[in-house]
Structures are given as C-alpha cells and as structure tokens.
Amino acid sequence: MKALIIIDMLDDFVGGALANPHAQAMVAPLKRLLDHARREDWVVVFSNDAHEPDDPELAVWGEHAMAGTPGAQVIAELTPRPGEREIVSAKRAYGAFDGTGLDEQLRALGVDEVVLTGQHTHICVRHSAYGALIRHYRISVPRDAVCTFEGVDEDDALDYLRDTYAARITTIDELIGAEAAARGAAT
Ligand code: ZN
C-alpha cells in the first residue's frame, strides 16, 4: 500500500514568507499526482509545518508556517479532504516522522511504501526520507513533484536521496503509468 506524502505545500512556502518559484511551477503536476492517488485509493498525507515560537529551526529560517496562521495552510489548489485515508499531519521540525505519530497511522492503514513529494528536496523531503528508511518503508521520489529552492542543485539533492536512502527516483508519469500497467496486467 502506497502513501502519497505531500510536504510543506503551504501558503508560506509557495507564495508567502519562504516563497519559492520552483514550488509555484510544481503545483499543477502535483495536483495531477494527488488526483491519481485519490482515484487509486492510496493513503494521502499532508505533512505540514505548524510551528510554535520556541521551535529550534526558527533560529535558521525566521518565523514561517506558524501554527494556526494562514501561512500554515495547505495551498488552495491542493486542499486536503481529511478522512480515514487522508491525513493532515502537523510537524514542528523537518521530518514528517519526527514526533508526529505518522508512522503508527501509516502502519494501521497497511502502508509499506511512501511517495515523497513537496519541498524542499534537500531539507524536509530529505529528513522525511531518513525517517521512512529507518522505519522500513520503501521510498519513491518523483523528481517532478519535489523541489529545492533557488541556488540549490536539484540533481545533487535527488542523488543524495537515491544514494543514502535507497530512494527510487521516478517521475509522475512513471508512477501514474506504472499503476495503469499493473491494473492492465491483472485483468
Ligand atoms: Zn519549518
């Protein structure tokens, strides 16, 4: 069972305090993958920064995605539909598994593979990949559904995920096509 994990596609990270043109360009393709995940009944997770004033990483980035503020909302294009198979998971550090209870939630739903998307490839996606690896999840990363910010090499960031966490680097088309092919073979 796959879980699509969408990391920090929040107002502050797309057009707000930490606005990123790469993330803005990625919204439509990511929406396509989200639609696919919902159709195929994958588990969907929105892993969202929801910071409190004493969170350590604010010393690095300044205030962003503060809990309860508009900047901490998932962008309108990807609005969550919370339910049994769609989880909104608040985090206060980089990794989706860091003190969030997400591992237990995914296990309860039978998830054994995570598809990591969102931003940033070299920070929160990376820390989430580490969290997934040590908890024995298989990891896929569609290269067109993640991004770094300006000045950071995307290929280097993806290579790190592949070489360090055994992440399968793929594409949205490949994921969607692979699902369709598997269905075809089963009938
Ligand atoms: Zn943060």
What's the number of extended β-strand segments? 7
Helical content band: 25-40%
Describe the oligomeric state of these chains in a short phrase: single chain
Q: Can you give the mean pLDDT?
A: 96
Class computed from helices, strands and strand pairing: alpha/beta
CATH class: Alpha Beta
N- to C-terminal distance: 19 Å
How much of the sequence lies in strands comes to 15-25%
- DSSP helical segment count: 7
Global morphology:
globular
User: Structurally, how many domains make up the residues?
Assistant: 1
CATH superfamily: Isochorismatase-like
From N to C, what is the helix and strand string?
EHHEHEHEHEEHEH
Question: What about the largest sheet?
Answer: 7 strands, parallel
Give Rg in angstroms: 15 Å
Q: CATH fold name, please?
A: Rossmann fold
Task: List the ions, cofactors and other small molecules found in this model.
Answer: zinc ion
